[in-house]
Amino acid sequence: MSTTFPPPSIKESPFATDVREGLSAVPKSLSSKYFYDDAGSRIFQQIMELPEYYPTRAEMEILTRQPADIAAALPYRKPFNIIELGAGDGLKTKELLKYLVGQQADFTYMPIDISGEAMQQLEGKLAETLPGLKVKTLVGDYFEVLNNLDSDGRPNLYLFLGGNIGNYEKDGAINLLRMIRNVMQADGRLLTGFDLRKNPRIIQEAYDDAAGVTRAFNLNLLTRMNRELGADFFLDQFDFYSFYNPRNGEVRSMLVSLSEQDVYFKSLNQSVHFQKNELIHTELSKKYTLTEIDALAAESGFVVERNFFDSQHYFTDSLWQCD
Ligand code: AVI
Description:
It is a single chain. The strands form 3 sheets. Strands 2, 3, 4, 5, 6, 7, 13 and 14 form an 8-stranded mixed β-sheet that branches. Helix 3 packs antiparallel against helix 11 (213-229). The protein is built from 12 helices and 14 strands. The N and C termini lie far apart (64 Å). It is an alpha/beta fold. Strand 3, helix 7 (116-129) and strand 4 form a beta-alpha-beta unit. The mean pLDDT is 94. N,N-dimethyl-L-histidine is lined by residues 47, 55, 162-164, 166-167, 207, 214, 283, 285.
């Protein structure tokens, strides 16, 4: 009996398709969304604890110190929903939720994530730490979940925290924000985390830490392709490079091929050729000015109602309403 290798499902998976396209493009690129397999998610947890990586602490400070101001800025005197895109471990959001539960606010927390396992874990953790909280987890892709959501006629506060918006190219960011705008009623609100421009050295160091954790985060993409697509990347044949351009606020991260080499992907039955010093672009991490945030809001059908800052003005959670 003959079996086909690879099974068609691997070859046609979104990861395989994106890798095939990204590595045959000029310049080569891979989406940063593929950083987050189990190992990558663990490395990202380590990044968030690095002394150089300030965004998590800055946003945590906002949500820990200003939940009362954030709650007071919401127009809700009747039951509402909090819908969170990309809830992750929910650690930062918990501060806001804790405050609202303590105030006996009548709301349901609806975190959305593509990973059913992550949602189950979050639900379990919240049941333990905030037993009074009403939680309804939603598993799937943002677009599908938001378009099929039944909000029970209640107003919705959408959360998109962590500065994740900065990982989208401008068109992608506008598309995502417009998608939220399209499902939002007049009394809806959106709270988005933006990492702000600051001394360029602070940003540069946050994305090229001394312990090499961000480097491992990027190289893990190669390990993931080896494991999931049967590739034969040698990790010592690639370097990591990232730089911040203070003129446009963009941190760009990349992998650099240290030699001319061919990498074979068994599952794709295909080789990819690398020139010496050829790059694979892996991530954009955009830093914003307040003017850029206003413009992004306007381009996606919103107006900025209020910005909540940490004490160093490194980060803002920006509250938007429909224009
Ligand atoms: C998830 N995202 C907001 C992080 C960032 O800062 O762009 C991912 C990251 N990349 C390198 N360090 C952290």
